[in-house]
Amino acid sequence: MQTRHGRTAAPSCGSTPQPTTWYHASARPFAALAPLDETVDADVCVVGGGLTGVSAALALAERGYRVILLEAGRIGDGASGRNGGQLVTGFSCDMRELRRHAGLAASRDMWDMGIEAMDLVRSRVARHEIDCDLRRGYLFAAGTPRQRADLAGTAEDWASVYRYTGPRLLARPDLARLVGSDSYVAGLADPGGGQIHPLEYLRGLAAAARLAGAAMFEHSRVLAVERTGARSCVRTARAEVRARFVVLAGNAYLEGLHPPLHARLAAVASHVAVTPPLPADTLRRIMPGNVAVCDWAPAPDYYRVTGDGRLLFGAGARYRPGDNGGRDRFLKRRIARVFPSLDPVELDCSWTGLIGVTRTRIPDIGRSGPDLFHAQGFSGHGVALTGLAGTLVAEAVAGTAERFDVFAALRHRPFPGGVMRGPLLALAVNWYRLRDRLG
Hints:
Blueprint: H1 22-26, E1 39-47, H2 51-62, E2 67-70, E3 86-87, H3 95-102, H4 104-127, E4 135-142, H5 145-162, E5 168-171, H6 172-175, E6 186-195, H7 198-211, E7 215-217, E8 222-228, E9 231-236, E10 240-248, H8 259-262, E11 266-274, H9 280-286, E12 292-295, E13 302-305, E14 311-318, H10 327-338, E15 349-357, E16 364-369, E17 372-376, H11 382-397, H12 402-408, H13 421-438
Parallel strand pairs: 1-2, 1-10, 2-7, 4-12, 10-17
Antiparallel strand pairs: 3-6, 4-6, 5-6, 8-9, 9-10, 11-14, 11-15, 12-13, 13-14, 16-17
């Protein structure tokens, strides 16, 4: 079966021996990489084989550094192969709130770097000839009058403070040209946003990084990072990397490797699913604009049409990642609420990924020591911002840290609550949902 983009339709997720995500089922083969099994020296050791770590490895290798990247599982096993594939302008934190934390001048620098992050994705796709179904077009959708007012304020703020004038505020009648749903009262159409097959993109970056000289190892979980003199020792169960610099790029999957850093994140579980390929007339009815969509709710729905004609739909913000019971039922209800004509909804497969969220919803990019760098907490905007983070880390390692320090200057506090952190965060999200529904 040929798709509208000329590619053969992906197999059903259920047809693979070990189903993971539709991304893994539809991506071209990626040869397994060997685990590290000896002691090696490097200029930089990158911990984590997602978009952050691979982007950092690419940027560093292009600067001539000897780079070793260690991934606990396979490249793209974490959020980089489990997200919604959406390229979203700006930051998860509202820019008015960001100004409160960073100040006007720094917020403008951060905004410009956020736009650069979007451009970086497109330039890397072109430069490295990565076939990842990159498309433009984005819609923020408002389901309540409160959300509509907030979207209008956001558009005005982007235009007046940051000179970003591309987005257009749409009333309900105009929305029909982009999305065929009666769930929304207004929308903000952003031509600068878009969508991508994130796993194909990541694997393309990994291939480019290896060509540039970076060495990558899978199934090499890091157990400890220890400072010894002028170098760090990064230990796995079978090997060690002795490096001048270390980059922690595990994000929500960092777990117990660096507890103080991990305490500044909440690991939010979000569920995603794909339908089987839908008839062309159905796609024209529900998604006539073929843009990526995200609603403006505290725990949003986000969705798009894949290159082989499926509806890919994500939803939820669960702060107890192990609780995946009823995932398909949950997603079917959410899809049917937005698109009643699809009810009963059929899903080809579903999966769950972890989003690293900071208290401010601003990315946590900085130093955990003189030569220990980290980048995490992209709070749902990671497909583009991870590439920027890798570039900033490479600049800082090279001794040009002015742009890196714009982010590093921000204070990120740990989440409160200890063992009660998950329930407390869930309670807070539910409160915001209720307030939003009440208008």
